[in-house]
């Protein structure tokens, strides 16, 4: 860890990604229950945000933190198969997972024509009104 005076702001706790990775590995080897906050505390940070700030210290630190977060996400994902997975579901939502259905509404051309006639905005006949259209015969 760095002991020299930093010219601006608080000095980084870890000078190299390798140094940080050793501390991350120590955390993962010491606990079965892995969390972002637990990792932050194990690395000596006073808040979760301090850990996440390391993603902005260059690609190597960014990749180190992303791999650690991915491992924690994997921990929660694996626990989805347990009988009481609500805690894991909640935690995964913090990793941008979603539990909603997205339904696409596609309005057909015929319905658009009907809506136009009803609103008086379109003059014309429905396809069923066309005597030349053989697809409408019964």
If you had to describe this structure to a student in words, what would you say it looks like?
The protein is an all-alpha fold. Helix content is 48%, strand content 0%. It has a domain at 17-93. The chain has helices spanning 17-30, 36-42, 48-53, 59-78, 86-93, 109-119. Helix 1 runs parallel beside helix 4. The mean pLDDT is 77.
Key descriptive features of the protein:
138 residues
Strand content: under 5%
As a percent range, the share of helical residues equals 40-55%
Helix and strand composition category: mainly alpha
Low-confidence segments, given as residue ranges, are none
Give the biggest sheet.
none
Shape label: elongated
Quaternary structure of the protein = single chain
Helix segment count? Answer: 6
Quick check: average pLDDT? Answer: 77
Number of beta-strand segments:
0
Per-chain topology:
Layout: H1 17-30, H2 36-42, H3 48-53, H4 59-78, H5 86-93, H6 109-119
Helix pairs in contact: 1-4
Please provide a brief summary of the model.
The protein is an all-alpha fold and 138 residues long. Helices cover 48% and strands 0% of the residues.
